[in-house]
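agent> fetching stored inputs for the adenosine-5'-triphosphate docking request
agent> found them:
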Amino acid sequence: MPVKIENLSYVYMPNTPFQKKALENISINIADGEFIGLIGHTGSGKSTLIQQINGLLKPTEGKVYIDEICLTDKNVELKKIRHKVGIVFQYPEHQLFEETIYKDIAFGPTNLGLNPEQVEDRVKRAMKFVGIDYERYKDKSPFEMSGGQKRRVAIAGVLAMEPRVLILDEPTAGLDPRGRNEILNQIKNMHKEYKMTIIMVSHSMEEVAQLADRLIVLDKGRVVLEGAPREVFSKIDVLEKIGLAAPQVTYLARNLRSKGFDIKEDIMTIEEAKHEILRVLRRRTL
Ligand SMILES: Nc1ncnc2c1ncn2[C@@H]1O[C@H](COP(=O)(O)OP(=O)(O)OP(=O)(O)O)[C@@H](O)[C@H]1O
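agent> prediction call returned; pasting tokens
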């Protein structure tokens, strides 16, 4: 489902001494099925922006369209929009509340008015996607699970609503490397299978480099860079100026290149780096 943001500005607590402009004249077009990485320093406006996309916050100026429906039109039912736009907030496991995993994941689809068989079907599908075995875990308490598993249950709860736009706010925050990789792989698979539009907020350049089709970089409430990850990471100077950095391997590749190794400089992932380094080493040993 496409998302269009047009000349959007947002001010917290307007006309008070605490007035704060959090977003300024943002225009973004996101195509149906696109995977966007939203990055920026703390306080750059990422959370404020994602809350505009399902109408939790209303623009001070400008417009937001989901599937060509303008969220601020008088007769728009925001409840219906929120069924289409799912948000997985930071640390979503803190919002688990039911006594079993089944009930927790079933909560959303039950509220959609689906019948029990349809709900069961959705719970099974969502659990499969996040890699939690249905028969083994459905009657367990979510509170018996590890941190990474709890998070997967919470993501399954949003997935079971089958949103057409999925917003993930730092889905790997606070997880160990294994938990992080599992979640990233599941997000990748989910996107492949459900083909929904995804907007993922992340502080990790390595993560967005692996997953996103396009990056949007915010600084002080404005879009400062936008483009394919490779394109954005080539602008290291701009990134550094706003307190960000390219992935570590991009720096490594640049460094090797400056020392005379014939390595591509727009490397973004460990796999690409390995491939390039082996290519150069093989050539040198021939
Ligand atoms: N409820 C609020 N009231 C007043 N100002 C706010 C409020 N929420 C955020 N802000 C301010 O708006 C700006 C953007 O904040 P926002 O939380 O959107 O940034 P962020 O990029 O999501 O940061 P982080 O990475 O730390 O989550 C910041 O200057 C912040 O202090």
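agent> quick read of the result: The longest helix spans residues 177-194.
agent> awaiting further instructions
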